[in-house]
Amino acid sequence: MPLHRGRLWRRRFNQSGLLAQAVAKNKAREGAHSVSRELGLYLDLLTRVRATPSQGGLNAAARRRNVRGVFSVNVRHREVIAGARILLIDDVFTTGATLGACAAALLGSGAAAVDALVLARVERPR
What we know:
This protein has helices at 5-11, 15-30, 60-67, 78-81, 97-108, and strands at residues 46-48, 71-73, 85-93, 113-121. The chain is an alpha+beta fold. Strand 3, helix 5 and strand 4 (113-121) form a beta-alpha-beta unit.
């Protein structure tokens, strides 16, 4: 999940990027025999075209509005996306608004499929 450059500068790390690096490193240790083709890790596959307020405290509809049109495919990687199955990695899944917006950008740029892997899921009180 891409952070806006201002937020990344303030935070000094991208937690989703660190998770993605750990997953890729672990997969590489398993060996090529378990991977159908080379595993590519792209921490800049998507870019955040504008800063958005924090999603904290927003309901599902407000979260979707907050991230609508925020993500774009990095032009340097367009050829990687065409026909590819992409795995998005995020730290927390709350409503799926951010993952949905990222998946829409990838599918709109020709990805064959987009899957998601998250570390934690927020359970909403019923």
